[in-house]
Amino acid sequence: MSNPQQLRYSKEHEWLSGAEDGASTVGITEHAANALGDVVFVQLPEVGSTVAAGETCGELESTKSVSDLYSPVDGEITEINEDVVNDPSLVNSAPFEGGWLFKVKISGEPGELLSADEYAAFIQS
Amino acid sequence: MTDAPRRTALDATHRALGATMTDFAGWDMPLRYSSERDEHVAVRTRAGLFDLSHMGEITVTGPQAADLLDYALVGNIGGVKTGRARYTMICEAGGGILDDLIVYRLADQEYMVVANASNAQVVLDALTARAGGFDAAIRDDRDAYALLAVQGPESPGILKTLTDADLDGLKYYAGLPGTVAGVQALIARTGYTGEDGFELFVRPADAVALWEALTEAGKDAGLVPCGLSCRDTLRLEAGMPLYGHELTTATTPFDAGLGRVVKFEKTTNNGDFVGREALTAAAERAETRPPRKLVGLVAEGRRVPRAGYPVVTADGTVIGEVTSGAPSPTLGKPIAIAYVDAAYATPGTEGVCVDIRGSHEPYEVTALPFYKRQK
């Protein structure tokens, strides 16, 4: 699997895009989606709510388990992906594209985020 | 003692297929090869191939093999005809379930007991302890067999291309020795998926050749390799209990709604068997003061109940506990098996919820199974 070079990554397996229109897009990586198995339910933070880096802001439920969703950055939620709420399998089929989860207006410099190559090395270790 | 997981004869095959592996009862087993949902659907509509070599086989032979099994297990094993199989249980003296089993009668004086991987040692020890005074021998055959299962509506057609055995004459819960793809096998029409299918007990040295032959023979019919993840959702839809979830030592067969497997009218050993007294009391209790009952729950929403989650009324009063839960690929909704107070066990009972991490999600009480195949 390949991790897009233009994205940054957290050790909790989220990806973060550069800021477009003031907000960055967050999703989970293909590695994380594969590890979860078929995702069947997503609970996303509410638009307008604030999230903190490394803290729980939702849930991802797969056939076999439930996992917390973390935000990679501090910020305010500006949009959530309604398509993925209606069809959670998008997280598996297109984790870096149609399976994005939410957009966040970053309020503080993100903590420790990895480049694509650093993330690839991290999941190998 | 070593903590290294055990590997089946098909381990390299699973890895070559890219399986996600998981520890299961001390074995490194395939969880899934691709999508567990696709594997589930393949078994319901076409065919799936499973490696079940972790299951524990124990052979019981001798003039009093039947008498021993009648004494050690709750079923009427002496009444099983050669070539047939029976679902049964082994209980503690106090009535608690040690394991659920399938017993095949291979010959007049030879039986194969198949135990769950997690309980194989417990079953072997209990059988050995209960064998005193019987002219019968117990053999640990856990390493003597690999077990492959072909399950799904296309499985008879696939198997027929590889064997001359009389599959049409092989009934459900029956087994006969034969040759499949040139490999000596015990061919059994059993499974744990709710579909028609076969389980093939073979020598471990033959497992890879048989797996490859089945894969090739099933290609046009859409057979895919399947892991333990879809096996769990298949058995859950079919309402089949799983040891450690619906069945435990804290549960008698009557508590699990499976009292029918207990046969008090045995002709051997003057009707005596381990657990008889306690199970007689459990049967009466189930009649007069029904304990919690095993029911099906179907979600109205999308959140998935998990084993151990409380079943509650809308005001939060705990009325039971989920024992197994998963999204059902066939129903398209989350389903669960749960023990609930008898007052809430009638299908259609209103106001039953599952506490899913603090949120009370409404569920419909239904009878089991959730899914029954069309014959």
What attributes does this structure have?
heterodimer, A: 125 residues, alpha+beta, OB fold (Dihydrolipoamide Acetyltransferase, E2P), 6-stranded antiparallel beta sheet, 4 helices, 20% helix, B: 375 residues, 6-stranded mixed beta sheet, 6-stranded antiparallel beta barrel, 8 helices, 20 strands, 32% strand, lipoyl (chain A), Glycine cleavage system H protein (chain A), Single_hybrid_motif (chain A)
Mind explaining what this structure looks like?
The complex is a heterodimer of chains A (125) and B (375). Chain A has 125 residues and is an alpha+beta fold. Chain A has four helices and nine strands; from the N terminus they run βββαβββββααβα. Chain A has helices spanning 30-36, 82-86, 90-93, 116-124, and strands spanning 8-9, 14-16, 24-28, 39-43, 50-51, 56-62, 66-70, 75-80, 102-106. In chain A, a hairpin with a 7-residue loop joins strand 2 (14-16) and strand 3 (24-28). Chain A is globular. Chain B contains eight helices and 20 strands. The longest helix of chain B is centred in the C-terminal third of the chain and has 13 residues, at 276-288. Chain B is an alpha+beta fold and 375 residues long. Chain B has helices at residues 11-16, 36-45, 65-72, 120-130, 155-160, 207-218, 228-237, 276-288; strands at residues 6-7, 20-24, 27-32, 48-51, 56-61, 85-91, 97-107, 110-115, 137-140, 146-151, 175-180, 183-188, 197-202, 224-225, 293-299, 310-313, 318-328, 333-340, 352-356, 359-366. Chain A binds chain B through residues 34, 37-38, 40-41, 59, 61, 63-64, 66, 92, and chain B through 20, 31-32, 35-37, 229, 232-233, 302-304, 306, 326-327, 334, 357.
